[in-house]
Every structure is written in C-alpha cells, then in structure tokens.
Amino acid sequence: MKKFKFNLLAGLLLLISASVCAQNAPEKVQEAFKKMYPKVTTVEWEHKGDYHIVGFVSDSHDMNVWFGNNARWIMTETNVESLEEVPAPIAKAFMQTETPPIQIRYIKIITFPKMPTVVIIDIEEYNSNREIQLFYAPDGKLLQSLDVSGGDGEIYPELFG
C-alpha cells in the first residue's frame, strides 16, 4: 500500500511539473510578447504545432497572439462582441448578404504583421448543424466562406497563407 501511495504521489508530481512547463513559452517568445503588450500581466500560454499562443484579456476583449518558434509574431486574434466593433464596410456587406435564420456564433478580428486585417464572422443556421466561417477584407469584400460544420472551425495561420 505504501508503494502504491508513493507511485501515486510521484505520478501526480510529474503531471503537475509537466503542466507547469506546458504553460510557458521559450524566453525569447515571452520577451517578444512583453514588447508588444508591456502592460498585460495575466496570460495563459499554449503550444500548438510550431506555434506558441498567448491568451489574455485586453480592453475587455479576449485575445490570442501567435508566435513562431523563432519568436516572430505571426498573428493576433481579437474576439469582439458585435458587428458594431468591425469596420463599417464589413458590417454593411454582412447585413446585405446574410439572411435569417442565422445566428452569429463569434466574430474575430485577425491582424498580421505584413498582411491586411481579416475579420471572421462565424455563423450558424437555426435548426441546423451547419456552421460557416465568413472571411472579410477591411473593405467589406468576402474573401472566402468555409463550411466548418462538424467542429473543424479552428483558426490557425495556414488559413491565411
């Protein structure tokens, strides 16, 4: 019984130490983030593939900043609550082309270091499992429409390549 308790305790300690390590990015990535957002203190780090993603809240918006392994800024996702927070041409284009019965699931403003901003409006049809992501340019032009029904709606840098 003592051996079981020891193994259980050792396993828990290993799990805790692994999850603590997973919460941090390399020092150079953390430094790059601190240069971009020096006033942000409460963050959560996540690692996906070749990316380090830091999540935080700024100006009451949930944000995710993506960095490459080399500490290069890839993109920033800013979650907004309504069409009132996106450029007016996008809101106008969306309202003119989308017809009920739909609901907006979320809106993300994606900014990049060297590409124009993209706004993603994720919609869901009522009484249906159909979910669509609409990608708009700042001028209101619809860049692409992705059917992400079935849960494949994750936003990642390769969508914008």
TrEMBL record:
Residues 63-143 form the Putative beta-lactamase-inhibitor-like PepSY-like domain. Coiled coil: none annotated. The keyword GTP-binding does not apply. The keyword Signal applies. Residues 1-22 form the signal peptide. Pfam families: PepSY_like. Keywords: Signal. InterPro entries: PepSY-like (IPR021533). Gene3D superfamilies: 3.10.450.360. This is Putative beta-lactamase-inhibitor-like PepSY-like domain-containing protein. The lineage of its organism: Bacteria, Pseudomonadati, Bacteroidota, Bacteroidia, Bacteroidales.
